Amino acid sequence: MVKEPQPGRVKTRLGRDIGMTTAAWWFRHQTDSLLRRLRDPRWDLVLAVAPDAEGLRSRVWPSDLARIPQGRGTLGDRMARALALPGRGPVCVIGADIPGINRTRIARAFAELGRNEAVFGPAPDGGYWLIGLARRRPAPPALFHRVRWSTEHALADTLATLPGLRTAFVDSLADVDTAGDLRMTRRSARVT
């Protein structure tokens, strides 16, 4: 899921710390790097773009990647549409602001969907960077209902909308919302 990297439209909390233009620049380059890292013949990359019309015609993102509009509504509404992409087989939805995502972690999530019905990549703040569904049966009708987005309850609330589904978890990764998060990411990159 990506947003058009315009100052004041993306990473606004980060922008309050480092400036809106710098935050948009970071997001654009982080997303470019992520897309390069995730190209792999084992899966198809599809960009769920926002705003819809601007994202569909944008020249910011690689022209060879399929795009779908995120559409209106809550984050849950938009993720539910991405999870319901036409076709068969498992699907994972990720955000673009998580520097630690790589092919190995995505492959692990898809492997878990071979044994489970849902998979999550938890985040240290109580949210998650990845959700995947095996799609062997329709998604629960209450998926994402009453989820308290952008809180420490997002993962627990989402799990509550998946009663009875075998669920797995992969690595915990942090997104970048603040200058402190950005500093931590840079420190982690130097250590590994």
Features:
single chain; 192 residues; alpha/beta; Spore Coat Polysaccharide Biosynthesis Protein SpsA, Chain A; 4-stranded mixed β-sheet; 3-stranded parallel β-sheet; 7 helices; globular
Task: Explain what the structure shows.
This protein has 192 residues and is an alpha/beta fold. The chain has a single domain (2-191), classed as Spore Coat Polysaccharide Biosynthesis Protein SpsA, Chain A (Alpha-Beta Complex). It is built from 7 helices and 7 strands. The chain has helices spanning 12-18, 20-38, 52-57, 75-83, 103-113, 154-160, 179-191, and strands at 2-3, 46-50, 66-69, 91-94, 118-122, 128-133, 167-169. The strands form 2 sheets. Strands 4-6-5-7 form a 4-stranded mixed β-sheet, with helices on both faces. Helix 1 crosses helix 2 (20-38). The two termini are 26 Å apart.
By CATH, the superfamily comes out as Spore Coat Polysaccharide Biosynthesis Protein SpsA, Chain A
- Beta content comes to 15-25%
Mean pLDDT: 95
Distance from first to last alpha carbon: 26 Å
Question: TL;DR of this structure?
Answer:
The protein is α/β, with parallel strands linked by helices and 192 residues long. The protein is built from 7 helices and 7 strands; from the N terminus they run E-H-H-E-H-E-H-E-H-E-E-H-E-H. The chain has one domain: Spore Coat Polysaccharide Biosynthesis Protein SpsA, Chain A.
Reconstruct the topology from this structure.
Blueprint: E1 2-3, H1 12-18, H2 20-38, E2 46-50, H3 52-57, E3 66-69, H4 75-83, E4 91-94, H5 103-113, E5 118-122, E6 128-133, H6 154-160, E7 167-169, H7 179-191
Parallel strand pairs: 1-2, 2-3, 5-7
Antiparallel strand pairs: 4-6, 5-6
Helix pairs in contact: 1-2
